[in-house]
Amino acid sequence: MSEKIKIMFLGDIVGKAGRLAVKDYIASLSEKPDFIIANVENASHGFGLTQKNYNELLNCGINAFTSGNHIWDKREIFQYIDTADKLIRPINYPKGTHGRGYGIFKTEKCKIGVINVLGRTFMCPIDSPFELIDSAIEEIKKETNIIIIDIHAEATAEKICLAKYYAKKGVTGILGTHTHVQTADEKIYEGSCAYITDAGFCGDSDGVIGMEYEASVNRLITNIPDRLDVASSGNSEINGVIITVDLLSGKAEAIERISKKYISEEKIIMKG
User: Fold this and answer.
1) Total domain count for the chain?
2) Which of 38, 95, 135, 152 has CB atoms 3.0–4.6 Å from 68's, for a disulfide?
3) pTM
């Protein structure tokens, strides 16, 4: 019988509340997964990722970081993304964009390929991802059969279409991010590819997808783009999935949602 590995994927980490909750959650696990991936495009005060927070999350035990359209929101990203070997940005940005759209990561047991892709429906204008993903899969398969795709997109139908398409091409898992709301549609496509439309988010559970309620509702009432701050009630949640993968074939055998409440012993006073 072939050996199995566990891959944990955590939804969008939002601000300090998300970082602290993730750090505490990973430390509390009695049995660590073989590989941990997290989406970090909102990890620094809800918009972008500073190098300090990148290093902080590395020290939590996360092995690979995906992102999305907000990865560019902190200008310092351009100073370190090309050398941040655990961080990838969406593959379908134009040629010459800083960073890389996929990576191959080594574990004690195997190598794992991770691809990040940005959706195009209801999102900013971006290149078609299909040829780029095809090329990345071809390169990754030279080294490993285990391939995870983070599709950072708004439209459910777009995520499902991409998942069905690449499940037929031997991808291990296609996991949605961006909406910050965990869906209950986890499944295995083609008997081999784990899928969920959105893994959810890690952050303050009393806000609005991790941000303060007052500013969020004021935007809806006034239609004026009020500044959004990260919520900081001290009550947080962890959302994501655990995938069981056959080590030899790279096929996903099971996917299980993670949905945990986390209450900080101290209220978060300093926002970040």
Assistant:
1) 1
2) 152
3) 0.94
Helix (H, G, I), strand (E, B) or coil at 262: strand
Q: Which two tokens stand for residue 96?
A: 């010459």
Is 22 contained in some domain?
yes
Q: Does residue 163 form part of some domain?
A: yes
CB 98 within 8 A of CB 81: yes
In a domain, 269, yes or no: no
Residue 48 falls within a domain, yes or no?
A: yes
pLDDT-flagged residues of the chain (< 70): 1, 264-272
Range of 131's domain? 4-263
Active site residue 70: yes
User: What does the alpha-carbon distance between residue 266 and residue 58 come to, in Å, rounded to a whole number?
Assistant: 23
Catalytic position from the list 45, 70, 152, 180: 70
Number of separate helices (H) and strands (E) present in the chain: 6, 13
The CA distance from 45 to 27, in Å, is 22
